[in-house]
Amino acid sequence: MKTGAGGQALPFCQATVANGFVFVSGQVALGDTGEVIAGGVVAQTHHCIKSIIAILEKAGCTLQDAVKVNVWLDDARDFQAFNRVYASYFQDALPARACVRSSLMVDAKVEIEAIALQPQR
């Protein structure tokens, strides 16, 4: 179980595998101390996507295996900056995506979850 600010337990798993799909839980940019990292939406988006990459690797996947991504932005004005970072990771292998503005449960600028299809072995 992961911990958040103040060592508070966060009751969720990083990902679940079912029928060849990897469902990655929503990732926010939490640093080693459990606090949201500084740097705004650009730094937080990089952090979230790098976390997703690491989780997918554990399941034998890469970002190229992602088939669906859901994104929540705290501020719609961050959409352009978010898109620049997002595009730098996915490039031409764009999965289906939803991106909405929503208040987040922690003081973060962005939350990202992903669904990937494990490569057939």
Can you describe this structure?
The chain is α+β, with helices and mostly antiparallel strands and 121 residues long. Helix content is 26%, strand content 31%. The chain contains 2 helices and 7 strands; from the N terminus they run ββββαβαββ. The strands form 2 sheets. It has a 5-stranded mixed sheet with strand order 3-4-7-5-6, covered by helices on one side. The longest helix has 19 residues, at 40-58. It starts with a strand and ends with a strand. The mean pLDDT is 92.
Enumerate the spans where pLDDT stays under 50 for 5 or more consecutive residues.
none
- Proportion in β-strands: 25-35%
Tell me about the largest β-sheet: 5 strands, mixed
Task: Find the structural class using helix and strand composition.
Answer: alpha+beta
Assembly state: single chain
Instruction: Supply the number of helical segments.
Output: 2
The helix content, as a percent range, equals 25-40%
Please state the CA-atom Rg, rounded to the nearest Å.
Answer: 14 Å
Tally of DSSP β-strands: 7
Order of helices and strands: EEEEHEHEE
Give the overall shape, derived from the CA principal axes.
Answer: globular
With strands numbered from the N-terminus, the spatial order across the biggest sheet is 3-4-7-5-6
Distance between the termini: 30 Å
Mean pLDDT over all positions: 92
